[in-house]
Amino acid sequence: MARATSDKREKRKQRYQEISDWLTAQCATLPPGSAVPSEAQLAEQFKVSRMTARHALETVRAAGRIERRKGVGSFVAQAALHRTESVLRSFSDEIRRRDGEPSSIIIEQGLVVLPSQALLMGLDPHDPMVRIDRVRCSDAVPVAREITYLPGRLRAVLKRDFATASLHQALRELGTTPARATGYVTARLASPEEGELLRQELPAALLVESRTVSDTDGKVIESTETAYVGTRWAMDTAAAVSR
Prior knowledge:
Elements: H1 2-29, E1 35-36, H2 39-46, H3 50-62, E2 66-69, E3 73-76, E4 81-84, H4 91-97, E5 102-112, H5 115-120, E6 129-138, E7 141-151, H6 167-173, E8 178-189, H7 192-197, E9 205-215, E10 220-229, E11 233-236
Parallel strand pairs: 4-11
Antiparallel strand pairs: 1-3, 2-3, 5-6, 6-7, 7-10, 8-9, 9-10
């Protein structure tokens, strides 16, 4: 009996792996955004249970090859965008370097008084700051949710349409030049709101970059948290080997 149960599990494992391999091959030939078969369609095509088909889809999703959108279906994922760690570029510049078209969906922008954030930036806690909350997109596909704070003296940037405009370009045109960035990257799961904004089926992993940007005089001009979809963004690193 035990041997029969073990053989059955092994057969089921082989079947879901077969489906996973087939889906991976399909993803390699189809353009990003293409629909892939549903659980029901895979179960019918490969004559397996829906549980086995679901396992196969989840395996391919975990590998970053497909995206599953709740209530909609599964689609071939965009290839991960790579950013060089040591170079400060705006999101728009990064996307254009890869022949993509950057854009943003504005969630909210305006002036806020947030003492804790102001103190982190070395500002007067009672002064208003600029806050810009937006979803960053590449070729209309959401890549990240980004929340940026600027000193209130830079409020003139709010006259720009950040659905298409670059924040760093706007700052340069106002006479403020971003010169140096410091920060760190952590990982966490997307919140329900982030899942909705980024079109991700939960649970979904995010790479979260917290960054502070200074101008040529060393004054802090920007504090940004950018939560990237883990399967859509990658950071390239390089370092000398310790001897």
